[in-house]
Structures are given as structure tokens and as C-alpha cells.
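call fold(seq) -> C-alpha cells
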Amino acid sequence: IRAIALQKDLVVLEATMRVQSLSDSWVVDQPVKTQKAEKNKRVVVIGAAGAVGLSTIKVLASHNYSLLLQHRGSTNKISKLQPLLKNCDVRYSVADLENSLDIKKLTKIISKLDDLYAVVYLASPPIDSPIDRLVAINYSAFKEIAEAALDNMLVKQRGLVLYVSSTAMFYHSDRLQDY
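ret:
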């Protein structure tokens, strides 16, 4: 997987990751290259406790970004990163992305961030989840979070919304044909 985030003609995030399916281990690829954060740049990481989320947090923390980390309550995984986060301004938000009240709380927090720079959306249920769960997390929650962030970004005329997803849905499954 290769991800590139651009701001006009400036590459602000470039990452390459090799994904192995049906394997017990990851192959380590080249390190991610990012631009050092200027002051007052906060990145919201949705799905922070997943494998990709934890890797993303490591990179952003090493480049001095302020962070807002959303997770469903999986603090054990994130707490292992505390040594890397000790010099960062880190905030946490526990939210179930299938729960409309949790999403409202999260979007309220995001809409009030004065230093919002980017939203990195990494949350996703397993590909074989029921269709209503897939739509709730992969579409509905993302839409509300993006809308909450975009108002602030448009006022400041800066910001990024990165949606990371899988191509697994292209491997036609009878249960996913309408999705």
C-alpha cells in the first residue's frame, strides 16, 4: 500500500506498507517520511488502537504533531506507546463509531479544535461484518466526522482528511455485492 498526502505541491505524508494476508508476521518496509510539524498542528486519528493506527501514531509523534486519538476503549495497546508520546500534546476520545451519541460527542470535540490540521480515518470493522455495521463505520461515522472537521478547515483554508480503506471489498463476496 502506498499513501501520499499532498498539500498543493508539497508532499506532507508519504508511506509505503507491505500487507501480508494469512500470515502471522509483518514484513518491515522502508520508514515513513513525513514533514516535521509546525506548531499548532493537531492530527485526529480515528481507529488509533488498530495496527495501522498504532504505526501512524508512532510516525506522527516522532514528528511532533499534537494528537487526538479515538479508540473504542483499547487503552492497553495505546498505553504501550506512552514513551513515544511523552513529549506530545495528546488527547484521547473513547467512542464507539456505531453509537450515534458517541459520534456526536466526538464530532463536538473535533469541531472545537483550534489547532486541527488533519483527520486520519483508519477505523473499519472486519470485512465480513454485517452490512449495517460496515455502512455505519465505513460511511456514516466517517461522513459525520469529516463534516465536523471540514467547517474548521475551510475557515482556516488548510487541512487534510485521509480515509484509509482496504481493497478486500473488491474480492466479491455474496454478502458484499450491494455494499
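The chain has five helices and eight strands.
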